[in-house]
Input
Amino acid sequence: MTEQQVSRKSAEFAHWLGELTALIDPGRGWYGVFLTRDPDGTRACVSGAELPPWDVVEALLHDFAQLRGEESGRTQTARARRLHAAAAAERDARPGARRALLDRLRPALREQARTAERARELLERTGPDEAGPLAHHLAWLRDDHDRATARVAELRARLAALPQESAQRPAALRPDPAAPAENRGRGRRPRGARYAWLDDSDGDAGPVAAPPEAGPAAPAGAAPTGARFGGGGGAEAPPPPAPPAAGPVSASARSAVAHAVAVLVDLRARGRSGEAHALLCEAARWPAVRLPLLATALDRAGLAADWATLLWEAVSLPTAHLADLAAALAAAGREGDAGQLLRQGVTRPGEDVAAAVTGTRASCWGARALVEVFVAVRSPEDTAHFAACAPQRLVPEVLRAARAAAPARETAVVHALRVAGLVTG
Output
């Protein structure tokens, strides 16, 4: 393949991107954000000097879909994927491509770890007066973390496609090059004897929700979520109810944790951060009873930052599993970690939280804690909507949680329940 052919493919993508950006407002939306935060890098991508990461292209397509409609957005997304993949493949055929990709991968991995740790620090030191600004800051941190995770997955996919890298990495750990941003580094289970601890299934007590099945990709016009888009926190959550007693941990669980930590230490020592992150994502889906033991073992091994990353990834789990994990952490004396998960859990739609509370998979403690934190941090109107999902079960729980909160909160919640017709008198 000649340099002229490579340039032609890159130019074809750059021409498409230039046409797209000419149609959207540079002062608004994600395009405006990128121009404000990194004007030189954004202009280099639009001009064709650099190939933008797919997450950036996806965000610009969101701006376009907001302007022209979801159907136009889907059409442009399909075209963009083809052009972007072709331009990336041809760039990666150039001499020195592997080194260039590795040079981009390292800062992406550092950003991924930095944002996870920063979010953990903010959640640990927040107070009631900081709740609003903190929610906004956390939303941006999460966006930065998601983008770093997407770029890690994309870069590792491109590296895996290179012949010299293909021979060195386990095949099951290669992200799908056809969809670099969609898997966000999640969902693939490493295989082989070295990773057998991920598949270990023992008799650990405690119900565990299955990971959600992958659904269709979100349309380009799907609105972003998070506090900066109008979601929001209210008051800071009170401490959750007294934690349950910690149950016994099986020998097989202890063995799995020891094996996991040994593998992570080895991967970190050899600089294989992408594989370490993939293993942490899988460990987040373990039975909840194992995770406190893993947290302690990671701390002792000097891998506290890996625990922060795992907690961040755990936020993507089903709400019921999140509640179970919070219960297990609280029982082990890690109330700070439990509170962090609960605060993140109750930012989800009220229907999702209600399903977790009323279902059979969330532990009794976790269900009660979810209700208490929901009542404390969400608006009274949100609380009434939440209670309406299953009035016979949730209204008494909401009233109990409101009574445990400040008097002003109780008054506001009861009023909202009356307006919704859920209580009388």
